[in-house]
Amino acid sequence: VTVRDCDPQKPSYQIRRLDADDASAVRQLRLAALEACPTAFLASLADESRLTVADFAERLAAPDAIFGACADEALIGMAGFAVKKALKARHKGVVWGVYAHPTWRGQGVAEALMRAVIDYARGQVEVVQLAVVTENLVARRLYERLGFQPYGIEKRAMKVDGRYLDEEHSALIF
Ligand SMILES: CC(C)(COP(=O)(O)OP(=O)(O)OC[C@H]1O[C@@H](n2cnc3c(N)ncnc32)[C@H](O)[C@@H]1OP(=O)(O)O)[C@@H](O)C(=O)NCCC(=O)NCCS
C-alpha cells in the first residue's frame, strides 16, 4: 500500500491528511482492517468491499477527512472524520476507522492520528463523537487520554458470529 509524499529517509512515520490520490491505498488499508479486526468496527468487510475507490475519495473530501500514518511509503495507519449531514447535526462530527497496522502498534501511531483529527475537527465542528467496543481497552484508554468523555453504553451494539458486543459512546466537546 503506497502513499505519495512520504519521506523514506525518516525512520519513523509521518501523519498527514490524505487526498484523492490516496483513495486506493485507503481502501486497501480499510479492507485489511475490517478483515483483521471484525469485532473492532461496526462496518464489515462484506459491507465495505463493495465500495469503490471513488466512494473512498468522497470520504476524503472536505468537510470530511481521513488522516494517514505512513512509513517507508506505506500507509500503516488511518483515522477517519465525517461531519453529520443533517442540517441540525452539522455541528457534530464522528471519528471512524481508527486503525494501526499490527507491526506498528504501541508506538503512538493512533494517538498521533487522533490528535491530527481533533486539530482538524476543531475548525469544522463543535462536538466530536465516537463509539468503541467496550472490551477494546487500548482504544478506550486512548480516547479518554485525549479528552473524550463517555456518555453512554449501547448494549448489543453489534452481533458478530452470534456474539453480542456493547459499545461505549464518547464525545469531545470543544
Ligand atoms: C486501538 C489501536 C488503533 C491503537 O493503535 P496504536 O497505534 O497501537 O495506539 P498508540 O500507540 O497510540 O497507543 C496504544 C498504547 O501504546 C502506548 N504507546 C504510545 N506510544 C508508545 C511508545 N512510543 N512506546 C511504547 N508504548 C507507546 C500508549 O501509551 C498506549 O498504551 P496504553 O494502552 O497502556 O494506554 C490499534 O491497537 C488497532 O488498530 N487496533 C485494532 C483496531 C481497533 O481496535 N481500532 C479502534 C476502533 S474504535
SSE blueprint:
Layout: E1 14-17, H1 23-36, H2 45-48, H3 53-60, E2 65-71, E3 74-83, E4 92-100, H4 109-122, E5 127-133, H5 137-145, E6 149-160, E7 163-173
Parallel strand pairs: 4-5
Antiparallel strand pairs: 1-2, 2-3, 3-4, 5-7, 6-7
Bound molecules: coenzyme A (COA).
Protein model, in words:
The protein is of the alpha+beta class. 28% of the residues lie in helices and 34% in strands. The protein has 5 helices and 7 strands. The chain has helices at 23-36, 45-48, 53-60, 109-122, 137-145, and strands at residues 14-17, 65-71, 74-83, 92-100, 127-133, 149-160, 163-173. A 7-stranded mixed β-sheet has the order 1-2-3-4-5-7-6, with helices on both faces. Helix 1 packs across helix 3 (53-60). The model has no long low-confidence stretch (mean pLDDT 94).
Quick summary of this structure?
The chain is α+β, with helices and mostly antiparallel strands. It has 5 helices and 7 strands.
